[in-house]
Here is the input.
Amino acid sequence: MTGSSLFDVSGKRAVVTGGGSGIGTMIASGFVDAGVSVIIASRKEDSLREVAEDLAVKGDCSYIVADLSTEDGCRGLGAAVAERWDSLDILVNNAGANWGAPLADQDSKSWHRVLDVNVEGVFHTTKFLLPLLQAAGTEEEPARIINIGSVDGIQVPGFETYAYAASKAAVHQLTRHLAKHLAPTVTVNAIAPGPFQSRMMKATLEAAGDGMERMMPLKRIGRPEDMAGPAIFLSSKAGAFLTGTIIPVDGGLATTK
Here is the structure.
């Protein structure tokens, strides 16, 4: 097998949740460039439409509006994808929420807001798209689930984002748990991003200024290709023997301490 075919994902079908901005858009764009047919999904139709129109210029990209903070919303996404496709090769569970506040100001509402999307959303989206993934996956060429965790689920964050950090640690463990039970025809891995230019990271990056880059071992924050690359790798023949892994894509932030 040649190097080019080892990483070839052309002709595959992917759903990327939270695809209307940030890391989701980075992954969706990388997939489209690589010849993958992509459906992006989130709550906000305006941003979905804008991204889908931009990506459709260079490949196959469409969108579905879905609120993935509820089981019914995840069920609706599964049904809508099934109306378009009879199988699914790749699911990227990227939709997420964050919340930061002093400990005394944390309440049940803020916890539910974050965990409903970041943990339950991943679980229910996987559950309702699993029949399409199993229709595509074989022992030789499994379907792929890629969960987007965070380095904040690996290390202790500097900010008081208790629900977010706890939710991403939960995503990492859920990844391992699903990987065991969905093998051998579906692999489940997680990418744990460090700082990337995204809507969720905007306030943090602005507050840190160039201090964030100075503290990074590689002296920069992540670029779109830094996120697209691992997603393509995990979706290709090159990544077919990985399951249950958590891959930090963090410029060394959490992994060189």
About this structure: DSSP finds nine helices and seven strands in the chain. The first strand starts at residue 13 and ends at 17.
